[in-house]
Amino acid sequence: MRLDSRKIKYINTTAIILAILFALVLASCSGRKAKLDRRNMIPEKELVKLLTDLCITDGLLTHPHVNKWFPVVDTMSTYYHVIEKHGYTKENLDKTLKFYFYRNPKKLIDIYDRILGILSEMDSQAEKAVLSEQILSENLWPGKYYYPFPDVHGDDQANFDILLNRQGTYTLTFTATLYPDDQSENPALIAWTYLTDASGNEVRTYFKPVKYLKDGLPHDYSTMVTVTTVTNIHFAGNLFAIENNPGTGEKHCIIESVKIGYLYSIL
Hints:
There is one protein chain. The two termini are 29 Å apart. The strands form 2 sheets. Strands 2, 4, 5, 6 and 8 form a 5-stranded antiparallel beta sheet that branches. Strands 1-9-3-7 form a 4-stranded antiparallel beta sheet, with helices on one face. 38% of the residues lie in helices and 25% in strands. β4 and β5 (202-206) form a beta hairpin. It has helices at residues 5-8, 13-28, 44-61, 64-69, 75-85, 90-103, 105-137, and strands at 146-149, 159-164, 168-178, 188-196, 202-206, 210-211, 218-227, 233-241, 253-264. It has 267 residues and is of the alpha+beta class. It has 7 helices and 9 strands; from the N terminus they run αααααααβββββββββ. The chain has 2 domains: 5-137, no CATH class; 146-264, Jelly Rolls (Sandwich).
């Protein structure tokens, strides 16, 4: 089961407090008058790791999908298993938290803040992972993956016209290799967005051309499109637009790994 940002959202301040209170309640069974010393205590660094895992466990146990998969879960046994997985016992955790609670509560607050920082970083990384996964899983490019120029099949066209039907930001990425013997004049990506007005005419907004380096090496290129309305905006253009007339100069270029991904919503 992958831990993504939606699951981590359940791991919050309340979860940390519950995890600590859970251990303190267990500790109370030993009696408040018991001698508090450092023997058999969990080292601070290990304590942070253990409590962090307890918080994650608490968050997962409250997640509806986990409850659906495991309708009957012995919550206490699950907590004990987490503690033992770190190489400690319930008694070790009881004693450690009692010591900080009664002798050094400021340190316990500091530990609490560090756990919050760890969980926040996990949340951030998970959101980035989900975003990357979304980009990889959604390729809106309707054309080919690979465009050689000249094309042995006689098709030297790399035109595109894509309907962008969601508000947000899109990115077009690809790799182009333009060889030194290419005779095309100023080859570049030419792109624009357009709407069709009431009279049926296209109202275009052009992007700055993306010109290619002619050194025989592959280079990555990209351009971004932001859609602020949902009025059927089209993103169109040509991956290999040239200024001279087609056929007047020998082409020698490869365009590949073409992808259009939906990055994020602006709402």
